[in-house]
Amino acid sequence: MFAKRHFFTRFSLLLLWWLGVFVGYTGCIQPDKFPDEPHIKSVSINKTTIKNLLEDFIVSVEFEDGDGDMGITDTYPEANAFLIDNRTGYVDSLKIPYISPSGNVKSISGTLNFTILSECCIALAGISCTPNATYPVADTVKYSVIIKDRAGNVSNMAEAPPLIITCQF
Question: Bridge partners of 103?
């Protein structure tokens, strides 16, 4: 009888010790700490080649933001993502939907996906994006991306891989 009680006492003490170690370890885990300014970690495109004016594609932006104030709201409806065409310098203004930080942790990170409905080749002669212009066989575009949070903090500029556009109409 004494041996059984001694076993359960030792087992209980060992269990309490492991529970203490677990609680101590999990209490030391800190949430990710990012700067208040958004930071773009990488940019990718889901295709390498598209047909002129006929195909959509997705630009994915991996980001992190320390104060968790990303996305549009009723009081902040302005564009907050900018896609810059390196061929022309044209800036396409996009909107990041509201992103809610979870729990007490304000830092957020994730991937934003922007669907771009089409892209056109730059014409050699005539007006770009029209069937009667003269085009090369293919055109290559690289996009740079910038994002902005509701406090007005602007991210770094990150470049997407090249996207080849086949130019035949």
Answer: none
State pTM to two decimals. 0.79
* CA 34 remoteness from chain centre: 15
Q: Given this structure, which CATH class describes domain 39-166?
A: mainly beta
- β-pairing, 49-51 vs 163-166, is parallel
3-class DSSP state of 16: helix
pLDDT tens digit at each of 169 positions of the chain: 555 555 455 555 555 555 555 555 555 555 567 788 999 999 999 999 999 999 999 999 999 998 889 999 999 999 999 999 999 999 999 999 998 877 676 889 999 999 999 999 999 999 999 888 999 999 999 999 999 999 999 999 999 999 999 998 6
Cα gap 77→33, rounded to integer Å: 27
User: Which stretches within the chain are classed as H helix?
Assistant: 2-28
Per-domain residue ranges for the chain? 1-30, 39-166
Query: How many Cβ atoms from other residues are within 10 Å of residue 130's Cβ?
Result: 12
